Amino acid sequence: MSYGRIPSKEEIYMPLTNHALLLIFTLGIWRLVWIHRMTAFLNRIPDVPRRDPTSQLLACMFVPFYYIYWVYKTSLLVGTYASMKRVWCDFKGLNLLFAIFIPFFPPILIQEKINTCIAVPSNTYRAYGR
Fold it and tell me: Domain coordinates of the chain in residue numbers?
């Protein structure tokens, strides 16, 4: 099943200052757009069940506490993506705490790790699990 177009690395990369300013000044609208884009981008990881970006977005909007679960699952997927790129990443617990108490921080931490992974040259990429 296809869940639409997967954003390219160039589309998902964003300087952290721009990302943080958008999170602040759009009053949460950018966070919703970002949830959709990040879910779609992480669907590129092989051998991982795909998540529908639209249903994930709607669940984050309307299901109480689903955003906390989404942050945890997304942190796990970012860790998987980082390990494919040979980048250290173990922040799922920290992101879970931030999602509960300071929900503004997880998007910044996740975007920073994605930016780091994208900056790694593609010749260091390895198949997950090998």
Answer: 10-124
